[in-house]
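Appendix B. Chain record.
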Amino acid sequence: MTQPKRHTVEKIGGTSMSRSKELLESLFLGGRDGAALYNRVFVVSAYGGITNLLLEDKKTGAPGVYALFSGAETDHGWMDALTAVGEAMGTAHRKVLDHPGDLQAADDFVRDRIEGARSCLIDLQRLCSYGHFRLSQHMAVIRELLSGLGEAHSAFVTAQLLNRAGVAARFVDLSGWRDETEHSLDERIVAGLRDVDLSTELPIVTGYAQCSEGLMNRFDRGYSEVTFSRIAALTGAAEAIIHKEFHLSSADPRLVGEENVVKLGHTNYDVADHLSNLGMEAIHPRAAKTLRQAGIPLRVTNAFDPEDPGTLIDEAATDTPRVEMVTGIAVHALELFEQDMVGVKGYDAKVLEVLTRHNVRIVSKASNANTITHYVDTPLKRVKRVQAELARHYPGAAVSVRALGLVAAIGRDISGLSVMRRGLEALDAEGIVPVGILQTSRSVDAQFVVPRDDMDRTTTALHRALVQDGRDRPARLAA
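Structure tokens predicted for this chain:
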């Protein structure tokens, strides 16, 4: 791969990809011509909703092809679902492409991938009808196979769109389709980009990359950002850019009002980690780690506001303590109360062991002399299984589960701002009684645990008190 002195690696999410026709003018072209069009690498996600149809709905858990295939009693469910994916892909690219030749090429591409996947799944079912083979042993590979279909489709269609517009775009397929060789992630990326001249070509790269590590197995739905960050690190990018359909702001404008939010503008990777922990998905923590270690700054922009520089995320500290964002996540509080816990070691370790075995993600935790509470982001059914297992291990303990909301005020430095006091005053004024409050000594975030139904009101109240009302305050307030 021919590397220019300066280039960027840029990622586009699925919701934005569904508006690719708008992106053509605002982002891909953006008033550029000639050499200014190049020295960029675009890593794309599947069109909005496609990965949900292939795997399972990320929010509701509704089964897609993968989930239906893994629990199939007959072929009809997953086969019909796979056909529906092909139809959804066709609908998506017909909103993007106009030229009959491009449409035909896209239709042919979808047919090849969908029918190829169908044949693979049928063959696997037939093989596993023999007693020596177990379908469960192959499900991780099937999840990887299905994951790559969406990104390959969107990358192919985007390259078609750009070539029709006069841009020398190249479809770079890292999904390993019909590739019999085995590669690590880095090897897959290097091989895919080996003969690309970034100064004269615009590579459109699949967010999914087939590799021996198994991206889905390790990172699940965050795999595209991991691919994106590794490409940036391996190519020595000057900057990594994530294009979203909104600016990274101080709160959700739908909750607090667009007129009240503030664009972050500049923050650091520490804040980005906390946002990821609360489901904001500024960037996957592993991707952030890769960029940090490579010394590559990250920029988060609004893809449809190309004149705005967005928010820069780097290692810089701040000279002005402030709350930069207020955001929250729905959690379940898993509480273990055991009077015999006092002075006895091992309770916390056992809880963590059970949570890990059930693949439960911990958002936050608190403990005192006889109570350990984990605030977890996982479906209720799974939490109930953990509850039952802990009750068996500790028959004398009271193990309870409660649906709550965790709302955090986050900033690079919130020391000296009396965030806890001001936050509690704001909640009291709204008649909201918190279940718990947590703050560590690092002064990066303060967490308010509230009843689930009060999450939105809590976010609005804290944003008003800590961001809106604090804009004209001195940099440091008396504690």
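Further analysis of this model is presented in Appendix C.
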